[in-house]
Amino acid sequence: MSKKTLIVIGNGMVGHHFLEQFVATPSASDYEIIVFGEEKQLAYDRVHLSEYFAGSTHADLAMGTADWYTEQGIQLRLNEAVTSLDRDQRTVTTPKGQYRYDELVLATGSYPFVPPIEGREHPHCFVYRTLEDLDAIRASAQSGKSGVVVGGGLLGLEAANALKSLGLQAHVVEFAPRLMPVQLDTDGGALLRHKIEELGVQVHTEKATTAIVEGVDARLRMNFSDDSHLETDLIVFSAGIRPQDALARSSGLEIGERGGIVVNDQCTTSDPHIHAIGECALWDQRIFGLVAPGYTMARTLASVLNGDAEAAFTGADMSTKLKLLGVDVGSIGDAHAQTPGARNIRFNDEQAGHYRRMVISEDGKTLLGAILVGDNSHYDTLLQYTLNDITLPDNPETLILPESQGGAPALGPDALPETASICSCHNVSKGDICGAIDAGCGDLGSVKAETKASTGCGGCTALLKNVVDSELEKRGVEVSKDLCEHFPYSRQELFHLVKVNGIRTFRTLISQHGKGHGCDICKPTVASILATCWNDHILATDHVPLQDTNDTFMANMQKNGTYSIVPRIPGGEITPDKLIVLGEVAKQYNLYTKITGGQRVDLFGATLSELPEIWEKLIAAGFETGHAYGKSLRTVKSCVGSTWCRYGVQDSVGMAILLENRYKGLRAPHKVKMAVSGCTRECAEAQSKDFGVIATENGWNLYVCGNGGMRPRHADLFATDLSDEELIRTIDRVIMFYVRTGDRLQRTSVWMENLEGGLDYLKQVVLEDSLGICAELDEHMDGIVDTYQCEWKTAVEDPEKRKRFREFVNAPEQKDPVQQWTTERDQRRPVLESA
Amino acid sequence: MKARTCWDAVCTVEDLVPESGIAVWTDDGPVAVFYLPHRLPALFAISHTDPFSGTNVLARGITGDLKGEPVVASPLYKQHFSLVTGQCLEDENVSVKTYPVLLDGDKIRLEVPIDQSESAVA
């Protein structure tokens, strides 16, 4: 049976989401799928477009990969715009050919509206929609000092932030009397304006631009209807969007009066074989300019095409929660009190810069809408009241009052109905979460993996954790944080006990705070904590029996009981002389030699008794231990940087060496990897590391909590344009905070995902010192840096410590009989057979 | 019929590491000797050979107790072995050989079979 053809026009966020949903349905196998994209790039995250200026690349923002399309058997035709649509023949035409369809999906999105102002075609006038637009804005900004955004809405303020991050004096020009007129009221808009102006962005409201002409002091001059003017070097129009409906219009599909492709509840147009989703679709006389409703349409259409007769789009909640230029803004439901009889409760604290407004129903029982500026901490609770029609308490004002004035705590997870939507990005309800728990998910991580909740924008992380904890508790699951049977404490709690009570040995800790004699879980954990707190040598008598074999023998045990040796090569920089020593030592001891992923050399096959001899030779040549065996800093990978590379803007090798020498030896809950790239091309792959540093023209951008390996995680941008000193202090604090609060064997990526409050919280702790612990963290780190010792140097110089490396204490000449060798590709390797 | 054995002096108290193990070579092959000073008796001896990997590494594992039973964890794949019975706690079909051990002055003596050196290679 030959397959039918499904064509999707548009490869944006909604189009991509539709494909993800549709290929997961059984019907997908009935279709050949072809996707046309007008832009050169694969679908990317337009919501986070301004991050492109903060160092993100298209790959960071991309929704999927070309490989994904290939794996799904989807024909992806980028940079190929569809020019005409023939509904009778059921074909679409592009400059490259004609394609027949059985079902057609229009996901053409929208285009920025540019008001018909004289002079708007000037080469330094832009819109803010695609990566190409951003590249053009960046190029223009390089030769300019100031920039104006026309439009003070959500996108306009995003664009203003982008101009600010490009180093321009940013202005916002708005026609309405206030910022964000759709979402905010007068008081909210005024507060937002005040906060934004404090950040250095100038706001001009009630300004209608009449013409754009050549400037006197700058490139351009904007003339306003009130005869005033403003000079600027570039202009970005962000005055709203218009549905991209040209193709539909020319083929005679039904179009709304003010544009938009008319669709029914099934997202189908006036032609039963043509469907439209996202910002190009007009449903119930409404265009939805947010991504979440677009996703809902995409899901609906995927179900419809899979034959689900019940599937229907029934409108979408347009509530929004944002951080604009660092200012919290929230708008829920009927924010402007348009429902007949609606009443308002307002709380306005000009001192603290907080504004909150509740719109409640005439009978005072339900919350119709809300506006928040300056502090979004009440948003989740208020949204749940609105979305789920939860009856308001007798004194509803307590919901927005500060707690000190009798404000109510956040809505408990128990109060939420089963239908309550917890994660709107992936449409996960409280009922879905309960279902996942009933099906065997026993912790937050597995619930996230099963339901995808909180893996989109991440805004619901705290709420999700509350729901999961509460549901687990209800089912009698004790959420145990005990490390093992010997200690009724988490690693973080043990860390505090050790630190606060000045405990220096395992024996003291277990006799005072645990029971029994310990095990292979708690002993290495405590060893790591003791090492972080006091930095004694790991082979000090009391600590020897606590270590994993790799730490005890300061080498990595391999499958045949021999060890591998990895000397430190900071930043991957090594002299020819040192390289020769590595070769000579490897040759003498017949060690298998391999270059590691962390830019160093791994020497395999040393027996226990050979280790001190080998290290004597390496130390004599100037090598230090590489801690490849430890839960500690491994390497700081680097590209060659500005010293050699024609694109490099900073000395990445120098910085990598500095960082590696600073943090070497520090014991952590798990291994820590870093990298430094000399420019935004990112050759050192820093964004897949626990700490990634990328050079900018002005300094360094720091990314944290990335991971490669089994479960890759893209690092989060933590701070931008740092000086050398700022970079080091910031890393100091994040590492120290991780070391103190991380769980046993928890990499920074998982630590971040489980950190309540996530990235924002970590920024507050480290950059704003919200817990008041930064001085202590700094002092702790300085102490560790000052007491660093090369563990191998200390060990080979101490005859007592060397005794530990005897293979058989009573037979120095006895070789281990089970170690059998063979040769492969000119090197020695173990004979692989199991006993 | 009981095999002939002898009490071999394998090392001295100086060689032991508290709360940990060392390996010695005997006529019966490699043996791991553990010294847990906070227990009575404090000495334990089991085969040094990890039955799961066939390598001689058990003396290099972490010691401890699970539900009161003194154990060592294999440094390779982390299974636990009772230091008293040699039983693997994760797999009831697997165990390692145990040896009687005693302190004689400052010498550690193991009771090992005589003339069975060919069994040394596991």
Automatic annotation (TrEMBL), chain A:
Residues 558-620 form the Nitrite/Sulfite reductase ferredoxin-like domain. PROSITE patterns: NIR_SIR. Residues 823-835 have a biased composition (Basic and acidic residues). Residues 5-287 form the FAD/NAD(P)-binding domain. Residues 807-835 are annotated as: Disordered. Pfam families: Fer2_BFD, NIR_SIR, NIR_SIR_ferr, Pyr_redox_2, Rubredoxin_C. Its cofactor is [2Fe-2S] cluster; siroheme; [4Fe-4S] cluster; FAD. Transmembrane segments: none annotated. Residues 630-766 form the Nitrite/sulphite reductase 4Fe-4S domain. The keyword Heme applies. Residues 422-468 form the BFD-like [2Fe-2S]-binding domain. The keyword Metal-binding applies. Residues 319-383 form the NADH-rubredoxin oxidoreductase C-terminal domain. Keywords: 2Fe-2S, 4Fe-4S, FAD, Flavoprotein, Heme, Iron, Iron-sulfur, Metal-binding, Nitrate assimilation, Oxidoreductase. Pathway: Nitrogen metabolism; nitrate reduction (assimilation). Belongs to the nitrite and sulfite reductase 4Fe-4S domain family. This is Nitrite reductase large subunit NirB.
UniProtKB/TrEMBL annotation, chain B:
It comes from the Bacteria. Keywords: Nitrate assimilation, Oxidoreductase. CDD domains: Rieske_NirD. InterPro entries: NirD (IPR017881), Rieske-like_NirD (IPR012748), Rieske_2Fe-2S_sf (IPR036922). This is Nitrite reductase small subunit NirD. It comes from Marinobacter albus. SUPFAM superfamilies: ISP domain. PANTHER family: NITRITE REDUCTASE (NADH) SMALL SUBUNIT, PTHR40562. The gene is nirD. Residues 7-110 form the Rieske-like [2Fe-2S] domain. Signal peptide: none annotated. Gene3D superfamilies: Rieske [2Fe-2S] iron-sulphur domain. Pfam families: Rieske_2. PROSITE patterns: NIRD (PS51300).
